[in-house]
Specification:
Chain lengths: 253, 319
């Protein structure tokens, strides 16, 4: 089927271009390590504070960092597609018989691979800081982060290609990602928050995904929390893929 | 070779902007036969690129029908895409990507296996004097090289019909002439039908078998370059006089010539049209000597497509 081969073609091209940018690869790897080293230790004494969720500081903090990685890894990819559009690459691909969904999915796949590598590095480093997590739970957690990142990539590419302007896209990304970040209890758990803030965060699907990954890291695999997070991640990715398909189709309308 | 490659009827494109609808293309009829090089000429904003994008399936027409390379534009856009090549004026490659990899990756979207793609790509690159760019990043190529690389990208699947959108914009004269040679070779050696948009008269003139002129979203003229030039009344003679006071008398003398139009004077300069500039010139100069008028410069110009455009639309292409 042309969808799979086209996705593969777009993916390999995008992957190659990413690997050609050693600076970006280095920054991508360094970023989670910096969070771990410069922010993680602040949380250790907090872990015993009242209201702090079950699990030690690292089981709470590392899933949050992973989700943050997924959100930010995906959110900014739209800049890349604006540049590609400007250099004529997108039109060149649209004039080929390639599947429209494949053109975006191949790129999303590249982002997911980059994200998963970063996530693995983050978890391995966290082990040295004292994180204890079952291998199976870590793998499930990474899959969930991959799904989340894919959803964000789809949305980001859709928005980027629809707007075609970095100046319009940058404020949008900030406007959307900041509240998502703050209301998902990534850096500090929402259980520390006052009631109104907790209610607000309850409607943020990303909080539930963070909670699901935290539950996984505590070794609770078959719980409602994990199921909810997984379903939400799948819904988001489906919405993202639909939006991406629409935007690519609209390019020729 | 008289099969139709493009048959468009009443092709229309209306944009909606701020509640108002703007008619970019208002009903274009055009036919292109297989093996032709057709120049699509018009000033900026005339609807050239919009028409081209519609024929390439990059933009859905809001009205009309077209059959491109044997496939219906609306009914079978994928069929059209398989059969055509499109070289956009915006380029086709990422600056940080390597030329060879970009071509092979593009070929794979047409279902061409990498080996065949590489063999074809190396041959095309050599044909277009780009043999040594395979491992270079696209961004490191010169403007002319990059444009030729775009053409290689557009030809990698051996399309029957190729659309070139303003291919020589921004190129120096030598690169332009070079590019024209390659475009002619495309048709002569590979039998490719070429549809080329340009706002350069000389480009359309020297390349095309046939020219379509578009203005304000409609085709206003069609024909071979020679046919179109015949529509303009002959050659232009421009005389520069030593004394501006002689201009009126000189215009009177020139206007007496058989077939001449009413001369236009502008300071020292007198300009008029005659059917045959070469034979009229000695007569004018002899009359000038008799009348004691001294011409210090003479120029005879064959009609250009620019004159054609001016005659047809009342406006110059350069405006």
């Amino acid at each position: 089927m042309t969808f799979f081969s086209d996705t593969w073609t777009v993916f390999t091209r995008a992957m190659r271009l990413s690997l050609r940018q050693p600076m970006w690869v280095a920054i991508g790897v360094l970023q989670p390590i910096l969070y771990l080293t410069l922010f993680g230790p602040l949380l250790v004494p907090l872990a015993n504070a009242p209201g702090f969720p079950p699990g030690d500081a690292w089981t709470v903090f590392v899933p949050g960092l992973l989700v943050q990685l997924g959100i930010f890894g995906g959110a900014f990819v739209g800049f890349g597609i604006i540049a590609e559009w400007r250099s004529g690459v997108i039109d060149r691909e649209l004039v080929s018989p390639a599947s429209r969904v494949a053109l975006i999915t191949g790129r999303v796949l590249r982002d997911v691979v980059v994200l998963v590598v970063q996530a693995i590095i983050l978890i391995v480093c966290a082990l040295f800081f004292g994180l204890r997590v079952p291998v199976g739970a870590a793998v499930l957690g990474i899959i969930m982060i991959g799904l989340l990142g894919a959803a964000f990539s789809y949305f980001s590419y859709s928005a980027g290609l629809a707007m075609k302007s970095e100046d319009a896209f940058a404020p949008l990304v900030n406007m959307v990602s900041l509240p998502i970040l703050l209301l998902s209890g990534i850096l500090l758990p929402m259980s520390l928050a006052p009631q109104w803030l907790q209610l607000l965060s309850d409607v943020n699907p990303f909080k539930h995904i963070v909670n699901a990954v935290r539950a996984l890291f505590r070794g609770e695999v078959g719980t409602f929390e994990v199921g909810l997070g997984l379903v939400l991640a799948l819904v988001l990715i489906a919405l993202g893929a639909w939006a991406g398909k629409r935007v690519f189709e609209l390019q020729t309308k | 070779m008289d099969t139709a490659m493009i048959e468009a009827r009443g092709l229309k494109r209306t944009y909606k902007a701020k509640g108002k609808s703007i008619e970019a293309v208002r009903g274009v009829d055009l036919s292109v036969r297989a093996g032709e090089i057709v120049g699509f000429l018009g000033p900026n904003g005339a609807g050239k690129t919009t028409t081209l994008k519609m024929l390439c399936t990059l933009l859905e027409p809001t009205g009309g029908t077209a059959v491109v390379a044997g496939h219906d534009l609306r009914g079978d856009p994928v069929g059209v895409r398989r059969a055509i090549g499109y070289v956009s004026q915006a380029g086709s490659t990422a600056p940080e990507a390597r030329a060879g990899e970009e071509i092979v990756s593009h070929a794979k979207l047409y279902g061409i296996d990498p080996k065949t793609a590489e063999a074809r790509a190396r041959k095309l690159l050599a044909d277009l004097d780009l043999a040594d760019v395979w491992d270079r990043t696209c961004g490191s190529l010169s403007g002319g090289q990059r444009r030729r690389l775009d053409i290689v990208m557009g030809l990698i699947h051996e399309p029957k019909l190729v659309f070139l959108d303003e291919p020589s914009t921004g190129l120096d004269p030598q690169s332009r002439a070079n590019l024209w040679t390659h475009i002619r070779k495309l048709r002569d050696e590979m039998g490719t039908t070429v549809f080329i948009t340009t706002h350069y008269m000389d480009e359309a003139d020297s390349l095309s078998d046939r020219i379509l002129i578009i203005d304000q979203g409609q085709i206003v003229a069609e024909g071979t370059p020679a046919e179109l030039k015949k529509r303009v009344s002959g050659d232009t003679i421009t005389l520069t006089l030593r004394r501006a006071e002689d201009a009126t008398e000189a215009a009177g003398v020139a206007g007496m010539l058989p077939g001449a139009d009413v001369p236009v004077t502008d300071g020292h300069i007198v300009r008029f049209h005659v059917p045959d500039g070469g034979s009229a010139l000695p007569v004018v100069l002899a009359e000038f000597t008799k009348a004691g008028i001294e011409a210090i410069g003479v120029e005879v110009n064959r009609p250009t497509l620019d004159d054609v455009f001016l005659t047809l639309t009342g406006r110059s292409l350069r405006e």
